[in-house]
């Protein structure tokens, strides 16, 4: 018998949970008789609450947000017209349907009530069936409007997601095209570059003072050394561009391993060390200590970001860069923030484009961040950049705890420890 009673109780609970929500009505009137009449009319479909003043109505509506408000026009203190004005001025309550009731035969009263924001206006004594029909209509109209708004928001979200997917697809196609071009271009550059390097070294050997029968004058030697330095610098720049083109076109690394995030950051700092000598470097580490990903990718990405940040603060009297990490969703967020010169809002969307650079001519190839973007995408992560001219730049990198393609067998047997606290705000 007891199991049967328990099953019945569970069935009743399921029916109660699946039943539609009871709508609520707020009745505002200082007449107890009218309260009782309206409750009798609305109670079969609405949970009714009664108050005797506009001030009480505002307080109750703010706490519980009724589906409809029915108010008398004439009350002690604030009248129904003022209640309309206050309800419509409150952004939390302005969409609640409001019906005014009055026994005043003045024909202008209806117009005044509607002008003040009432949705309907009824004369007393009211007909119960008419009141219920008007309440039903206004509540359904509001619910239909809310449903349209919900659908519009859903469509907007779907549209944004579609645009985002389209942008990612275009970026992937563009990078793939650039990668194909980079492969051929790097090959075409390397071959003649090797010949030029060999010729340059032969010329260096032939113009050494000890190799010359007639030693050149000191000023000639200085001029030759200057020209030789410029040529060497140009050749090294060409070789660096060719190497970056080759990196941009490099096939994806399919290795996955448990990688220490802090070790990758340390290696990136070591690579950028020469640029960071004058910089006050702050570190704040929270969240996962290790993730399953491609070894070395984070180092390459962060080294380039740190070099860019160091260049941005190079001319400041007090250059600062902060690196911080925290857990974010199913991954780790790494933020590199500087107090440098910043980037204009018009330029920010272009910084990941191949060959685009904000540096002076001859100081950057414009391939560093394009390579970063390619590596971030291969990790299944994302990158965002926020910047203000004169106030600095923030590079925000998100990487999943497991990069795409991780074999189940490679997953750590123990869960990775993570701190739940949010990353502290930068002091600068």
Give the topology, please.
Elements (H helix, E strand, L loop, with lengths): L1 H17 L4 E6 L3 H11 L3 E6 L2 H11 L3 E5 L7 H10 L8 E5 L4 H9 L4 E4 L4 H79 L11 H31 L8 E4 H11 L8 E6 L4 E4 L3 H17 L6 E9 L2 E8 L29 H11 L3 E7 L3 E9 L28
Parallel strand pairs: 1-2, 1-3, 3-4, 4-5, 7-9
Antiparallel strand pairs: 6-8, 9-10, 10-12, 11-12
Helix pairs in contact: 2-6, 3-4, 6-7, 8-9, 9-10
Provide a quick synopsis of the model.
The protein has helices spanning 2-18, 32-42, 54-64, 80-89, 107-115, 128-206, 218-248, 261-271, 297-313, 368-378, and strands at residues 23-28, 46-51, 68-72, 98-102, 120-123, 257-260, 280-285, 290-293, 320-328, 331-338, 382-388, 392-400.
Walk me through this protein's architecture.
- There is one protein chain.
- This protein is an alpha/beta fold.
- Helix 8 crosses helix 9 and helix 9 runs antiparallel to helix 10.
- The C terminus is likely disordered.
CATH topology-level fold name of the largest domain = Heat Shock Protein 90
- Looking at how many chains there are and whether they match, the oligomeric state comes to single chain
| The CATH C-level class name of the largest domain | Alpha Beta
Number of domains: 3
Give me some keywords for this one.
single chain, 428 residues, alpha/beta, Rossmann fold, Heat Shock Protein 90, 3 domains, five-stranded parallel sheet, five-stranded mixed sheet, 10 helices, disordered C terminus
